[in-house]
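Justification of computing resources. Each target in the renewal requires a structure prediction run like the one illustrated here; the chain below, 101 residues long, is used simply to show the kind of job we budget for.
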Amino acid sequence: MNKLLAAILLMSCTFSLHAKTIDLECEVLANKMVTKLVDEGLLLSAEQHQIRARAISVALCSEVQKTAEVQHQKAQTSALQNWIFENRPDKPGNKRLKRLK
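Resulting structure tokens:
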């Protein structure tokens, strides 16, 4: 019964892991970056330069977002596996503690 319950919990958590994504709002960040670069005089105010800088910024931000999502999913999976394997009343350490009580 416990194994069945753990399997159902694992499957439901795995599905929910893939449902949630990290949103870094790359478009907003790219616009802020271009505005700051223009204000600081580091980027020409010509529209073609701003468009290219915005595209580069969005591309880099998207890569960071994908990497963060992968790391987050790995961490969640690891935490779930640790919880499942550590939360067993029949572990040797738990049996020893029960004997000490």
